[in-house]
């Protein structure tokens, strides 16, 4: 093939492939996805009294004593900024990182217990919607006191919200913090 | 059974089941026995003025490949620089700087998908969909094309023709990458990955603050990102982001997607050669180092951070900094090893926050040359080069002219092997990497102090040269200095092997086939597998041990001794 011919073929090929992979492919997947799985395809929003309060999959910040707190977040300056996903990227031998985490740890530590590690470390996305069951149970005392509920009742609520490994095989047991706090609100309203 | 073992068993079983099946399909659609060209293909060739019947000499094959790649870089680079003026830009993202656009374009065209930027804030919806997705398809197709040419080098005799680049590309995109991606994308949507043209959700949280959550056509890009071992994420957090990877099941689907094609192409190789045992030997030689890496990485991450354990953290949790609860230690470590063994580079946990030993494993996986399954196509063609090197070394030991798959390996091939497998990785990782460290401009972007800082830089240049794309993301790489040097490393790591492999393919296709004799070294037995793994590990160890000793090894010893930086 001559050089001008080759350049013409290349240009045409890039154009046609752009249409096929950049337009036809995503449009076709969107069409099927929107009709087969509309909730997931639109980001699994959670609606309360007609207003969108977040997404089931995206963690959000909770700071009040009456709510279960999510993990620390390195997404954005204040954490849980969904426009700035990411982790701290700090390593194990970083003194400043270890100091920050130790300060968090001392703030939540109940004397003579060991603190669940996910409660004091930032996730990879900064948007982790989950806590380990241990990390949620660790906060039950504080939440129960702030809500003036019996501690056993709050602990039971956590246990009711534990999602096990998928099919008993994949992933770690976890609790969705937004779902748990919604249930907590519903229970207190009763 | 322990959860990490259960998951590994599910994974390996899935791979063993899917790869041979897909291998059958691949050999049918990529190497069809004579028959009419399907209409869609024929129409495409007519439009572009391509004569699909005409086979190419290796140099012409390479020329077509380079032209399409250069064209792709120019197209993508101009789109990224001009995105501020182009439509479909709901967030009013401005155009990229020339050096970021160059780095991003070369990175996506070469299947590296290193990202010096954060996807949610730096790339418009138009560029994500039209620009990046196109290269997500074309770059693995290029890998498959070069592999097909290499295989023809072994299957053909006395010819200087090794196939037609355009035909190999087109078949790979239309019959392999597109259908598998459509299916995978829908599986991912089912699990919760968004696929919409809405730009965002604006929510008022339970505590009353505003949260803006970006959406988009994420699942379609996510699917080809894994299937094509691309790895370039829609979001900055990549597959750690709950919208890219929402559940443990989606995590399993993504991990299987990464090694699906690299594994299936090995099986296809066996069928095209009509010697499935040869392919199985290579598959095993890939699987053993992979499992070894998974074991070490998982163990290291389970040990946790000794400084935090001393401060009162529960040691049972392991090292959870930078990891997601839904994947846990085992789902994160397994993903990290798979994504670096294949030249994928997607991450579901931040490798920078791994323990020193846990972070060493992904780095070594890349440094071994991306042959532990490796990238789509590229993994196997470089593995075949290592196989040639292994029979050459075995031949030296017994004083016999080496041969592989019936082709005599002579001086010309061995010289080319140096350029295909031995030279590129050290050149990009060590020479270009050392240049980066030598200048102040290269060191300012380092986030972590102490030996971990060296690991950050080393990882960046390893990842670029290996066309992997994952990062110790603490390094701020979006500077003219790093963007340009990384582009050089990426180019060396991609095109030096491709040119040498095509030259070898041309040279092998020209030879006659030797009959198997009593003196032939059997390359489908355990002895060969052991030798091959040995050659890969020894070449890697000799090249990288000194620099690894200064980075991750020094950090691990410091952590054990209780020293922080």
TrEMBL record, chain A:
<dbReference type="GO" id="GO:0005886">
    <property type="term" value="C:plasma membrane"/>
</dbReference>
<comment type="similarity">
    <text>Belongs to the KdpC family.</text>
</comment>
<dbReference type="GO" id="GO:0008556">
    <property type="term" value="F:P-type potassium transmembrane transporter activity"/>
</dbReference>
<keyword id="KW-0067">ATP-binding</keyword>
<keyword id="KW-0406">Ion transport</keyword>
<comment type="subunit">
    <text>The system is composed of three essential subunits: KdpA, KdpB and KdpC.</text>
</comment>
<keyword id="KW-0812">Transmembrane</keyword>
<keyword id="KW-1133">Transmembrane helix</keyword>
<keyword id="KW-0547">Nucleotide-binding</keyword>
<keyword id="KW-0472">Membrane</keyword>
<keyword id="KW-0633">Potassium transport</keyword>
<dbReference type="InterPro" id="IPR003820">
    <property type="entry name" value="KdpC"/>
</dbReference>
<dbReference type="Pfam" id="PF02669">
    <property type="entry name" value="KdpC"/>
</dbReference>
<protein>
    <recommendedName>
        <fullName>Potassium-transporting ATPase KdpC subunit</fullName>
    </recommendedName>
</protein>
<keyword id="KW-1003">Cell membrane</keyword>
<keyword id="KW-0813">Transport</keyword>
<feature type="transmembrane region" description="Helical">
    <location>
        <begin position="12"/>
        <end position="33"/>
    </location>
</feature>
<comment type="function">
    <text>Part of the high-affinity ATP-driven potassium transport (or Kdp) system, which catalyzes the hydrolysis of ATP coupled with the electrogenic transport of potassium into the cytoplasm. This subunit acts as a catalytic chaperone that increases the ATP-binding affinity of the ATP-hydrolyzing subunit KdpB by the formation of a transient KdpB/KdpC/ATP ternary complex.</text>
</comment>
<keyword id="KW-0630">Potassium</keyword>
<dbReference type="GO" id="GO:0005524">
    <property type="term" value="F:ATP binding"/>
</dbReference>
From TrEMBL, chain B:
<keyword id="KW-0406">Ion transport</keyword>
<dbReference type="InterPro" id="IPR004623">
    <property type="entry name" value="KdpA"/>
</dbReference>
<comment type="similarity">
    <text>Belongs to the KdpA family.</text>
</comment>
<keyword id="KW-1133">Transmembrane helix</keyword>
<feature type="transmembrane region" description="Helical">
    <location>
        <begin position="327"/>
        <end position="347"/>
    </location>
</feature>
<keyword id="KW-1003">Cell membrane</keyword>
<protein>
    <recommendedName>
        <fullName>Potassium-transporting ATPase potassium-binding subunit</fullName>
    </recommendedName>
</protein>
<feature type="transmembrane region" description="Helical">
    <location>
        <begin position="418"/>
        <end position="439"/>
    </location>
</feature>
<feature type="transmembrane region" description="Helical">
    <location>
        <begin position="252"/>
        <end position="269"/>
    </location>
</feature>
<dbReference type="Pfam" id="PF03814">
    <property type="entry name" value="KdpA"/>
</dbReference>
<feature type="transmembrane region" description="Helical">
    <location>
        <begin position="484"/>
        <end position="505"/>
    </location>
</feature>
<comment type="function">
    <text>Part of the high-affinity ATP-driven potassium transport (or Kdp) system, which catalyzes the hydrolysis of ATP coupled with the electrogenic transport of potassium into the cytoplasm. This subunit binds the extracellular potassium ions and delivers the ions to the membrane domain of KdpB through an intramembrane tunnel.</text>
</comment>
<dbReference type="GO" id="GO:0005886">
    <property type="term" value="C:plasma membrane"/>
</dbReference>
<feature type="transmembrane region" description="Helical">
    <location>
        <begin position="12"/>
        <end position="30"/>
    </location>
</feature>
<feature type="transmembrane region" description="Helical">
    <location>
        <begin position="281"/>
        <end position="301"/>
    </location>
</feature>
<keyword id="KW-0630">Potassium</keyword>
<feature type="transmembrane region" description="Helical">
    <location>
        <begin position="172"/>
        <end position="190"/>
    </location>
</feature>
<dbReference type="GO" id="GO:0030955">
    <property type="term" value="F:potassium ion binding"/>
</dbReference>
<comment type="subunit">
    <text>The system is composed of three essential subunits: KdpA, KdpB and KdpC.</text>
</comment>
<keyword id="KW-0813">Transport</keyword>
<feature type="transmembrane region" description="Helical">
    <location>
        <begin position="129"/>
        <end position="151"/>
    </location>
</feature>
<feature type="transmembrane region" description="Helical">
    <location>
        <begin position="526"/>
        <end position="547"/>
    </location>
</feature>
């Amino acid at each position: 093939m001559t050089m001008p011919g080759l350049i013409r073929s290349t240009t045409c090929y890039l154009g046609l492939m752009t249409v096929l992979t950049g337009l036809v492919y995503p449009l076709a997947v969107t069409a099927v996805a929107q009709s087969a799985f509309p909730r997931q395809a639109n980001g699994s929003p959670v609606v309360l009294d007609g207003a969108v309060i977040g997404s089931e999959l995206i963690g959000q910040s909770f700071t009040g004593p009456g709510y279960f707190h999510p993990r620390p977040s390195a997404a954005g300056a204040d954490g849980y900024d969904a426009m700035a996903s990411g982790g701290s990227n700090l390593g194990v031998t970083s003194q400043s990182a270890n100091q920050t985490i130790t300060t968090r740890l001392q703030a939540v530590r109940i004397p003579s217990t060991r603190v669940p590690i996910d409660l004091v470390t930032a996730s990879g996305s900064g948007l982790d919607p989950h806590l380990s069951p241990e990390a949620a149970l660790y906060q039950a005392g504080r939440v129960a006191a702030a809500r003036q509920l019996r501690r056993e009742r709050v602990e039971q609520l956590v246990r009711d919200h534990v999602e096990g490994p998928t099919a008993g095989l994949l992933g770690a047991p976890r609790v969705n913090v937004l779902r748990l706090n919604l249930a907590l609100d519903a229970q207190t309203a009763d | 059974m322990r959860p990490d073992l259960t998951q590994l068993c599910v994974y390996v079983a899935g791979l063993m089941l899917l790869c041979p099946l897909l291998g059958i399909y691949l050999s049918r659609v990529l190497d069809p026995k004579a028959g009419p060209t399907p209409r869609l293909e024929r129409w495409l060739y007519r439009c572009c003025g391509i004569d699909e019947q005409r086979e190419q000499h290796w140099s012409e094959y390479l020329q077509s490949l380079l032209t399409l790649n250069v064209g792709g870089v120019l197209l993508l680079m101009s789109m990224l620089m001009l995105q501020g003026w182009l439509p479909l830009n709901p967030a009013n993202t401005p155009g990229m700087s020339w050096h970021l656009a160059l780095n991003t374009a070369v990175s996506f065209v070469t299947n590296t998908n290193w990202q010096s930027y954060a996807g949610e804030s730096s790339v418009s919806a138009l560029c994500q969909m039209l620009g990046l997705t196109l290269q997500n398809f074309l770059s693995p197709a290029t890998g498959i094309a070069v592999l097909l040419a290499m295989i023809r080098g072994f299957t053909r005799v006395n010819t200087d023709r090794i196939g037609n680049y355009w035909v190999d590309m087109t078949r790979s995109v239309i019959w392999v990458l597109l259908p598998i991606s459509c299916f995978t994308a829908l599986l991912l949507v089912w699990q919760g990955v968004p696929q919409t043209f809405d730009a965002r959700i604006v929510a008022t949280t339970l505590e009353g603050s505003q949260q803006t959550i970006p959406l988009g056509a994420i699942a379609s890009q996510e699917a080809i990102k894994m299937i094509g071992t691309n790895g370039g994420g829609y979001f900055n957090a990549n597959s750690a982001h709950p919208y890219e990877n929402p559940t443990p099941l989606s995590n399993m689907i993504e991990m299987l997607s990464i090694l699906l094609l690299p594994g299936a192409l090995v099986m296809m190789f066996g069928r095209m050669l009509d010697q499935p045992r040869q392919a199985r030997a290579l598959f095993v030689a890939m699987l053993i180092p992979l499992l070894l890496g998974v074991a070490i990485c998982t163990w290291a991450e389970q040990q946790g951070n000794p400084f935090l354990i001393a401060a009162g953290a529960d040691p049972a949790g392991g090292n959870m900094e930078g990891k997601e609860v839904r994947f846990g230690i085992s789902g994160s470590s397994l993903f990290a090893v798979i994504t670096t063994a294949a030249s994928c580079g997607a991450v579901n946990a931040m490798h920078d926050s791994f323990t020193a030993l846990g972070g060493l494993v992904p780095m070594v996986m890349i440094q071994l040359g991306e042959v532990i399954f490796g990238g789509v196509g590229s993994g196997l063609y470089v593995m075949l080069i290592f196989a040639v090197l292994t029979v050459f070394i075995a031949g030296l030991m017994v004083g016999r002219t080496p041969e592989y798959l019936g082709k005599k390996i002579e001086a010309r091939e061995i010289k080319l092997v140096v350029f295909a497998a031995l030279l590129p990785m050290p050149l990009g990782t060590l020479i270009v990497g050392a240049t980066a460290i030598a200048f102040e401009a290269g060191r300012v972007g380092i986030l972590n102090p102490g030996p971990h800082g060296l690991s950050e830089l080393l990882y960046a240049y390893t990842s670029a040269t290996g066309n992997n794309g994952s990062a110790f993301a603490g390094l701020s790489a979006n500077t003219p200095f790093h963007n340009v040097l990384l582009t050089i490393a990426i180019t060396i790591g991609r095109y030096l092997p491709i040119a040498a492999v095509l030259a070898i393919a041309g040279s092998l296709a020209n030879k006659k086939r030797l009959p198997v004799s009593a003196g032939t070294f059997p390359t489908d037995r355990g002895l060969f597998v052991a030798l091959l793994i040995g050659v890969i590990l020894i070449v890697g160890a000799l090249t990288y041990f000194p620099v690894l000793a200064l980075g991750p090894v020094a950090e691990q010893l410091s952590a054990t001794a209780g020293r922080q930086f």
